[in-house]
Design goal:
By secondary structure, the chain is of the alpha+beta class. It is built from five helices and nine strands, in the order E-E-H-E-H-H-H-H-E-E-E-E-E-E. The protein has one domain (about 30-160). The longest helix is centred in the middle third of the chain and has 12 residues, at about 80-90.
Length: about 160
């Protein structure tokens, strides 16, 4: 497992050289490179009023946990139980080890339904660039669903 989800690039070695009078540090998350990201994938009218930065911040480290699980998984075909287990290990608090998966369902568009609760539109959808049939949907309150779009198999949990 990685110690950090961020690659830190510093341009201090060029400070003072001709044409480079500013020093910049850029943080790049591995998940930004390895995952395709779609904000408000169901075009929810309320979520459309929020800035993308708010939606990204609401997802927190969940895309990094998903990225870690997908990138370190060596099984093929990919099994959701393995992805869920790796995400739980990285998170360390058992996000998928609760009762969500048994009572939750996600419709074809990605809207989350749980018993008598109001449906939730996903804030962000993440898909690995190399496993296009897997996705991670992040909802309000850190509710998280991983799903195989080929088989419609899914796991739901909470990563707060």
């Amino acid at each position: 497992m990685t110690d950090s989800y961020f690659a830190n690039y510093s341009f201090e070695n060029i400070q003072g050289k001709e044409g480079f009078d500013k020093v910049a540090t850029v943080n790049i998350r591995t998940s930004d490179i390895m995952l395709d990201r779609q904000y408000n994938p169901t075009n929810d009218s309320y979520l459309a009023t929020l800035p993308e930065s708010h939606l990204m911040e609401s997802a927190g480290l969940i895309p990094d946990f998903f990225c870690e699980a997908v990138c370190t998984n060596t099984d093929y075909p990919v099994k959701l139980d393995v992805i869920a287990s790796i995400m739980n290990e990285v998170y360390q608090y058992g996000g998928f080890s609760n009762i969500f998966s048994d009572k939750a369902r996600v419709d074809e568009s990605g809207v989350y339904h749980f018993e008598d609760d109001e449906p939730l539109a996903p804030l962000v959808r993440y898909r690995p660039t190399h496993h296009g049939h897997l996705e991670c949907l992040v909802y309000e309150c850190a509710i998280t669903v991983i799903r195989d779009t080929k088989t419609n198999e899914m796991r739901a949990g909470r990563f707060d």
